[in-house]
User: Fold these one by one.
Assistant:
Number 1:
Amino acid sequence: MTNEEMKSLIAKALDMRNFSYAPYSQYKVGAALLAADGTVYTGCNIENAAYTPSNCAERTAFFKAVSEGVKEFKAIAICGGKEGADVLDDCSPCGVCRQVMSEFCDDEFIIICAKSLDDFTVCTLPECLPDRFGPSNLIRPKM
């Protein structure tokens, strides 16, 4: 993945923070998910007063894509921080989001955690979730 492609995803993730619904934490997160076919699915975090029904930006993007029949992905950019903050945090996916990524992504999947267009870190899914549990642990070949 080129630096320009990464920056394009980061820009979309940064923009998605504007749609975040985070009245309780004031922590706004945006995500941009690149499908294998080149389509980008976006998401933001959506909080709920009961907390448990809240949804992370990453899962919002994945669920939008899967609900449209897309199940192959190349990369995701994630940006997050307190509302109104000048500097964003190094926003890494939570454990539940990592597990969702594990369901649909291979070892080449790239995770971009960005503070800005020029300040970001990149890792692969196995680096982010070593010894992961996924479909291959449950699906057995037919005999």
Note: The longest strand covers residues 73-82.
Number 2:
Amino acid sequence: MAEYVAQVIWQRGEQDFLGNRYSRKHLLRFDGGLEIAGSSSPHVVPVPMSDETAVDPEEAFVASIASCHMLWFLSIARQRRFCVDDYQDAASGVMQANGAGKLFIARVTLRPAVTFSGERLPTRQQIEQMHHQAHEECFIANSVKSEVRCEPRFAG
């Protein structure tokens, strides 16, 4: 069993915490040493208490699903001997209220565009099958109750 860790670091400093005038900006630190600025979403907590240049949890959630899907897709394409040159995804997530009125990310839509090269190029059907398999294998997609969609983009 593998364990994955991330540190979330926030400090009040001189901010007026009890008066609700404190920044939601914080630091996300990962085990490899990477540090990323985090914040609440400006859609949830207005600027200046949020930092719109930082990664918010909702964006990180969408990116996590998109990244996991991509990694599985690349592995599957390689196993099938298709050479991927470029993979870009314009993923998005939609927040809405559930039956109890609580907000949640109800849907994540992946929009991957993949460029292949070489003598063996996959058909549209093979690409769709690889995306389907990647979705089935994605650890993150298997961990959430939100609907996760994949809408591959094709040149043409």
Note: The domain at 57-150 is CATH 3.30.300.20 (GMP Synthetase; Chain A, domain 3).
Number 3:
Amino acid sequence: MATKKYTVTLPEELAEEIRREVGPGAFSAYVTQAIESRRERDRLGELVEWMQEEGGPLTDEELAAADAELREAGQRFARPEAGDDLLKAG
């Protein structure tokens, strides 16, 4: 991907904190990833808006089902898989 140098203004304390954490050579990559992440969230928000315009707002039933799926996924990812304990022990 082609790159171009831009000048941006950041709070000094924040910029220096990030630079200390990632190192001076990785600062641009960190900022790029942050911008990409924000842009992805913005686009997802636009998609949700469009979907609600097209299909109407979610029903209480649909919201409850989505909440249940999120809780289930969170529990699944929070607990180690059965084989993980064996790998750590070895």
Note: The mean pLDDT is 87.
